[in-house]
Design goal:
alpha/beta; Rossmann fold; six-stranded mixed β-sheet; five-stranded mixed β-sheet; elongated; RNA-binding
Length: 408
RNA sequence: GGGGAGAUGCCCGAGUGGCUAAAGGGGGCGGACUGUAAAUCCGUUGACUAAGUCUACGAUGGUUCGAAUCCAUCUCUCCCCA
């Protein structure tokens, strides 16, 4: 069987590794149990988590056993790594609720049959810890001096770090230790921002048991300019279709920068590397083919074949000028709002296409609005219910945003 | 516990009585150019009517014809000392 280490390396996942040679050897000769933790701080996973899921999937395909750990316990603390502010304290109910949603996504990518993968919640062993016991048992193995020097606290050394958050590292290390004891877990993976926490776990296991444990981190998805990817105007790029529609999701990937196409194909799809390299090498206008493949593939992974197809068709139609048939988002507008006639400004704001009338006015004056394929340049332009009758009342905002307005 | 500094629009940050809806930058949005790319250029970026009005500079009161700017109290943040 192919060594998953080479696969991960070739596709560009690996950022840091504790014991490169040993890890490579181990992964080649035996099935390895490893874990990745996910803190349910939001009610949906985002694209950053997706990379981790991909890694688990690659690992499982090569015969290793993933443990997806839901951080129901650690979320009670909040990981301060790389953050400039303290996380909001969350209630147990919300955490449990979010954890439920995570499960569904994992099941799409991992096979949990016959214990080929596990999902556990660290709330099971963290929530009932006894403070004194824990401190004597685990706390003794940590040096505050070293912790303070850790890179992940850097930003917090300027802004302030509470003792609550300072404990996070111990708990994550303890997770790894527990998984090692219970399931023989030998490796912990995570985003590169988790490096400090992962090392802490590796060292804890070595100190307490003398056993070998390893850690590896993966690149955070960044653009060629080094900016974190997956940010949209509305916040993160969510995997939940309720929060980010498949169409928006598709469009995000359709619009990535040329320079990022190959990297994204390697990290976010299962396409063979030969194909990835071929697509990434396309030049000029042709790179758009690669972007279509990328957008389609990623959307298919997350939302399924059907949704991906729909998004692709909609996008193609919308951008080829043949908008009438495109499956573009519909917004409803109450008929009484329209009355006998409605002016463009009221239309845009009432339909939620713009947040305010001022914004609508701005857009119209700046030539940013088209209705039924016609630029609207006069803010006095008005419409009557008749204009909506054929169901093709399509508003184009800027170059890329299309909305179909339907009276209700 | 003692002392000091600070809180301005989405973010950073200037502004220390009227010329301030608030410089500058970033980001966002629109336009041009294009390949639904990048870079670049232009415009725009509190709200409502279209020429004013209203709401805004941590919160609440006060001084003044007039306050982001002065005073008081409060809240929060950071720094130094213990």
């Amino acid at each position: 069987m192919e060594n998953v280490y080479d696969v991960l390396m070739e596709r560009g996942y690996i950022e840091q590794c504790t014991h490169e040679e040993e890890v490579k050897e181990m992964l080649a000769k035996e099935p390895v149990t490893f874990y990745i933790g996910f803190d349910p701080t939001a009610d949906s996973l985002h694209i950053g988590h997706f990379i981790q899921i991909m890694v688990m999937a690659h690992m499982q395909r090569c015969g290793h056993r993933p443990i997806a750990v839901i951080g129901g316990g650690t979320t009670m603390i909040g990981d301060p790594s790389g953050r400039s502010d303290m996380r909001q304290v969350m209630t147990q109910e919300r955490i449990a609720n979010n954890a439920e949603k995570f499960k569904k996504i994992f099941e799409r990518f991992l096979s949990f049959e016959d214990g080929k993968a596990l999902m556990v919640n660290n709330a099971d062993w963290i929530l009932n810890l006894n403070y004194i016991d824990f401190m004597r048992d685990i706390g003794t193995h940590f040096s505050v001096n070293r912790m303070l020097a850790a890179d992940c606290y850097k930003t917090r050394m300027e802004k302030g770090l509470t003792f609550l958050e300072f404990n996070y590292m111990l708990l994550q290390a303890y997770d790894f230790y527990m998984l090692h004891q219970k399931y023989g877990c030998k490796m912990e993976f995570g985003g590169n921002d988790q490096w400090s926490n992962i090392i802490a776990g590796v060292e804890l296991i070595r100190k307490k048991t003398g056993d070998d444990a390893y850690g590896m981190t993966f690149s955070l998805l960044t653009t060629s300019e080094g900016i974190k990817m997956g940010k949209t105007a509305k916040g993160a790029l969510w995997l939940d279709p309720e929060k980010t529609s498949p169409y928006e999701f598709y469009q995000y990937w359709r619009n990535v920068a040329d320079a990022d196409v190959e990297k994204c194909l390697a990290l976010l799809t299962f396409l063979p590397m030969d194909e990835v390299r071929r697509l990434g090498a396309l030049e000029g206008e042709k790179i758009n083919q690669a972007k279509e493949v990328l957008a389609y593939e990623v959307t298919r992974e997350i939302h399924g074949e059907e949704e991906a197809q729909k998004a692709q068709d909609a996008a193609r139609k919308a951008f080829s000028g043949n908008q009438a048939e495109a499956d573009i988002p519909t917004v409803e507008l109450a008929a009484e709002k329209v009355g006998d006639t409605i002016e463009i400004l009221a239309l845009l704001s009432d339909a939620g296409i713009t947040a305010t009338r001022s914004e609508a006015r701005r857009l119209v004056t700046q030539n940013g609005i088209a209705v039924k394929g016609q630029k609207v340049t006069d803010i006095k332009t008005a419409y009557t219910p008749k204009d909506f009758e054929d169901g093709d009342f399509i508003v184009k905002k800027g170059k890329k945003v299309y909305k179909r307005i339907v009276l209700v």
